[in-house]
Amino acid sequence: MTRKVPPLSVMLALPLLFLFLSSTGTHAHNITRILAKHPDFSTFNHYLTLTHLASEINRRLTITVLAVDNAAMSSLLSKHLSLYTIKNVLSLHVLVDYFGSKKLHQITNGTALTSTMFQASGSAPGSSGYVNITNLKAGKVGFGAEDNDGKLDAVYVKSVAEIPYNISVIQISQVLTSPEAEAPTAGPSALNLTAILSKQGCKTFADLLISSGVASTFNENIDGGLTVFCPTDTVLGGFMPRYKNLTAPQKASLLLFHGIPVYQSLQMLKSSNGVVNTLATDGANKYDFTVQNDGEEVTLKTKVVTAKITGTAKDEEPLVVYKINKVLLPRELFKAAPTPRPAPAPKAEAPKGDASVADAPAGDDVGDQTADKNGAAGLDGGKLVMMFLSLCVGFWLV
Ligand SMILES: *[C@@H]1O[C@H](CO)[C@@H](O)[C@H](O)[C@H]1NC(C)=O
Ligand SMILES: *[C@@H]1O[C@H](CO)[C@@H](O)[C@H](O)[C@H]1NC(C)=O
Ligand SMILES: *[C@@H]1O[C@H](CO)[C@@H](O)[C@H](O)[C@H]1NC(C)=O
Ligand SMILES: *[C@@H]1O[C@H](CO)[C@@H](O)[C@H](O)[C@H]1NC(C)=O
Ligand SMILES: *[C@@H]1O[C@H](CO)[C@@H](O)[C@H](O)[C@H]1NC(C)=O
Ligand SMILES: *[C@@H]1O[C@H](CO)[C@@H](O)[C@H](O)[C@H]1NC(C)=O
Question: 11 in a domain, yes or no?
Answer without folding.
Answer: no
